[in-house]
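Per your request, structure below.
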């Protein structure tokens, strides 16, 4: 007896071999997602003995009418904008550099990839010290230029731009490796033929490199946007959403409502909205690039 799925036949032995992985995936991914979606329609404080109170779409309505939500989405788009207009160009440039052969290449790769492997809480603690308003290195440097009394992470105006720049530093190394893989996949014969035809370096970049890396750019764009919406640890370690909610993102709102205010149903509705937005953006990006292809 064989099982048929989408017109293909599978033996019982193959299905049994997949069963442990499917059960694990269901327990770790599918069940929590379904449970989160279910709980988002209820008011619940997280205590098992307390009854769920059905509120329908009230949690979603509250989220979209909360004044902090506007700030959180503005900050997410600031992070995404930093990724698109700063991190991607820098990472692409670094990828073109590491695709060349020169002395110290391995050290160069390690130096720029190191922020990716360091825990982001450790990074946030490091930058909290660097930007410390009394004796941090940046504060001392600014003092030399006559700028005194500035608290970068404690100022409503400068806190979020500082978080964006730190996020760029953390993410550039990962994107560099992704772009480097895309560059390595382009056949050398194309560049050699272009060189014979007298094509300039800029023309190679515009007419060969960028068009042949469209799929890589698509992947990086999805990573940038979903990474901005998943941002939590860096913001929590640097500012905890402050000062005055200036650096709030959806995940800090989720955390505070779940573990500070014991509003688990409302927190789950925030999680559902974030997941749906990320899925929608991934679908739109894939659709746009498919149409261009």
């Amino acid at each position: 007896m064989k099982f048929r799925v989408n017109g293909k036949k599978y033996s019982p032995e193959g299905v049994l071999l997949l069963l442990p992985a499917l059960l694990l995936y269901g327990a770790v991914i599918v069940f929590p997602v379904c449970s989160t979606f279910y709980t988002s329609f209820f008011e619940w404080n997280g205590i098992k003995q307390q009854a769920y109170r059905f509120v329908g779409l009230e949690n979603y309505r509250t989220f979209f009418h909360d004044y902090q939500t506007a700030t959180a989405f503005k900050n997410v788009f600031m992070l995404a904008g930093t990724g698109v207009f700063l991190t991607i160009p820098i990472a692409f440039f670094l990828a073109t550099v590491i695709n060349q052969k020169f002395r110290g290449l391995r050290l160069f790769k390690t130096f720029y990839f190191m922020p990716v492997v360091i825990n982001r809480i450790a990074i946030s603690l490091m930058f909290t010290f660097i930007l410390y308003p009394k004796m941090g290195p940046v504060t001392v440097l600014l003092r030399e230029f006559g700028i005194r009394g500035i608290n970068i992470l404690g100022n409503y105006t400068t806190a979020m731009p500082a978080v964006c720049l730190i996020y760029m530093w953390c993410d550039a190394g990962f994107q560099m490796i992704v772009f480097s893989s895309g560059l390595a996949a382009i056949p050398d014969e194309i560049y050699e033929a272009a060189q014979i035809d007298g094509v300039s370096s800029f023309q190679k970049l515009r007419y060969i490199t960028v068009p042949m890396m469209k799929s890589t750019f698509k992947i990086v764009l999805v990573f940038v946007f979903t990474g901005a919406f998943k941002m939590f640890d860096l913001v929590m370690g640097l500012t905890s959403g402050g000062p005055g909610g200036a650096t709030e993102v959806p995940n800090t709102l989720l955390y505070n409502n779940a573990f500070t205010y014991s509003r688990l149903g409302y927190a789950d509705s925030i999680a559902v909205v974030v997941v749906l937005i990320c899925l929608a953006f991934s679908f739109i990006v894939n659709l746009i690039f498919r149409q261009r292809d």
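The mean pLDDT is 89.

Regards,
D.
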